[in-house]
Amino acid sequence: MNKVVGKRVWSLVLVFLLAGSASLVQARSLDQIISSGVIRVGINPTMPPLGLFNEKNEITGFDAEFAEVIAKKLGVKVEIVKVGSPDRIPFVATDKIDFVMGAMTRTAERAKTIDFTVPVHTEILGVLTVQGKPFKKMEGPG
Q1: CB-CB contact of 43 with 81 (8 Å)
Q2: CA-CA distance, 59 to 12, in Å (whole number)?
Q3: pTM higher than 0.70
């Protein structure tokens, strides 16, 4: 693992540890996770390359690999739990998972229920078109 990924993993683990002690919901503590030997991680398998099903119908991808690294650093096994976009926050809030990986925009409303960590990665969106098209604004039809 390169130094940048290593630093991000440790940053995420540190933030996770701090968030576990001051969480807005009644999530399992780090001691409970370590005692159980398993950390439960929610991953949306419909967002390749972050999460997808492989030929064995197992969830794989960047998020699953990153969750494995976190589990290894904590000395526990990882249990991947399938989540969809509407399930993510309720699964954390009801202790079905310990944390969720995947794309989620920070909002004030979501921050009332869950703690956010430092982003593992970010995305930048852009629009490309060909020369000669009359597009002048980023507005849809109508």
Answers
A1: yes
A2: 21
A3: no
